[in-house]
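User: Fold this; tokens only.

Assistant: Input:
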Amino acid sequence: MTTTEAIRHLGSLYAFANAQEVKAVEMAIEALKRSQPTRKHKPIIRNAIKCVSCDDVIESIHRHDAKKCKCGRVGVDGGLDYLGRIGNERDFIDMGEWA
């Protein structure tokens, strides 16, 4: 079931719901709307970082492609879906690229 179909289905429950159930349905619809991807973000072209300790450049290619540098201080995850960073921001240089 897509998010749109789920929202439509939840909306159809209004006819049979009491006040408390209506509130729960409204909250579920809002949560589904927030979970939809927004088109405002620029697409990710490259998801990579450089470790300042070992100078290792690591890149995540796909969503569940978590990688760590040689020394293990920092890591990257998310591929082209999201920018996941592991470790302290001061320990790496972001080399990500966006469209």
